[in-house]
Structure formats: C-alpha cells, structure tokens
Amino acid sequence: MLTLSTRSQAGIGIALVSLMIITRGHHFASLQNLPDASWAIFFLAGMYLRSAWPLLGFFALSWWLDFAAYTWGGTSGFCLTPAYIFLLPAYSALWFAGRWYANQHQFAWRTLMPLSLSILVGLSLCELFSSGGFYFFSGRFEETTLVEFGSRLVKFFPMYIESFLFYIGIATVVHTTFVLIPSNQQHTNAG
Q: How many CB atoms are closer than 10 A to CB 57?
C-alpha cells in the first residue's frame, strides 16, 4: 500500500496543479508541443493524494482552464457542449483506477501487473466516457453509429495513451528516485 506524509502529498498536489496549468489546452501558460497531462494527473492524484477533495479541485481547475482558454484565450469552443459533463465520469475513472492501484502498490516488480491493469481499465473507461460522450451527445455529429465511433477510437485513442504513458513514465522515474535515494543514504551512513 502506498502511504505518504501530508507534506509529501501537498508537494505532489502542487506539482500536479502546476503540470495541469502548464499543459492543459491552449491557454496563457501553454508550452509549445507539450501534450496535455490531464489524464495522467487524475490517475496520479488518485494514487498519491489520499483525500477525495483533490478530485473536485482538479475538476474545477480543468473546467476553469478550459473556460479561460475559450473566454480570454481565443480557443475554439468546439468541445464545450452538453457532452462536457461526461468528463466527470471519465476523469473519475482515472482517479479511482489510481486509488485502486495505490492500495495494491509495493515497491517490487510484481506490482507491474496491478499497475498495468489499473491503467488499462482507467484509460479504457475514460476514453469511452469522454470520446463516447462527445461523439454521441455533443450534437456535433449528424449521424452517430457504433461503427464510426469504433473507427474514431482506433484513430484517436492511441494519441491519448501515448501522452498518458509519457507522464506516467516520468512519474515512475521520479517515484523510483525518491524511494531509492533514502535507501542508498541509509546504506552509506551504515557503512
């Protein structure tokens, strides 16, 4: 089980908020060509932050960033439809997947199976809610069919997986570093 001090959780929370501000859409703080980290942020928040309040905070922050980008940043409002509400269950799926994995976590190779399972389930549910909600309920598509939705999944879902795994890979390196540094310092001090 993954347990962190309140101070560590606060630091991780601040890092995740900063990452969302930097990477979410096209707004005032975007860095050129940096992929959106929102999906990974919700997964990592579920994994590292023990309270459920950050889930609501990240919902509010993502909404505010999208609203600001549309209102003041000149970004298209194409995605701001009634289907936007489907982001709530989409992001919640990632958060719950991260929370589930936190309860399975051990710093051992055998943890890769539950990590992979939580990522697979979380990503799949998130994609079905976000893309499915948009495709079927946004009003942007005249005729909706399961076949066309399937072809859109095949076309767009790999890009979301790629950016998610990019950030999870970085988080894995950072996590491993923070676990191994204290362990190495203890061995050095004992010797």
A: 16
First-to-last C-alpha distance (Å) of the chain: 30
CA geometry: angle 151, 154, 156, nearest 5 deg: 105
User: What does the alpha-carbon distance between residue 93 and residue 129 come to, in Å, rounded to a whole number?
Assistant: 9
CB 34 within 8 A of CB 167: no
Paired tokens of 16: 């995740």
87 near 109, Cβ under 8 Å?
no
Q: HSE on the CB side for 78, CA within 13 Å?
A: 6
Rounded-to-integer distance, Cα 90 and Cα 22, Å: 21
Distance CA 191, CA 189 (A): 6
Q: At what angle do helices 6-23 and 53-71 cross, to 10 degrees?
A: 20
Read off the pLDDT of residues 117-175 as tens digits, 9 standing for 90 and up: 999 999 999 999 999 988 898 888 888 899 999 999 999 899 999 999 999 999 999 98
Q: How many CB atoms are located within 10 Å of the residue 70 CB?
A: 18
Buried b or exposed e, range 160-188, using 16+ CB within 10 angstroms: bbebbeebbeebeeebeeeeeeeeeeeee
- CA atoms of 68 and 46, how far apart (whole Å): 25
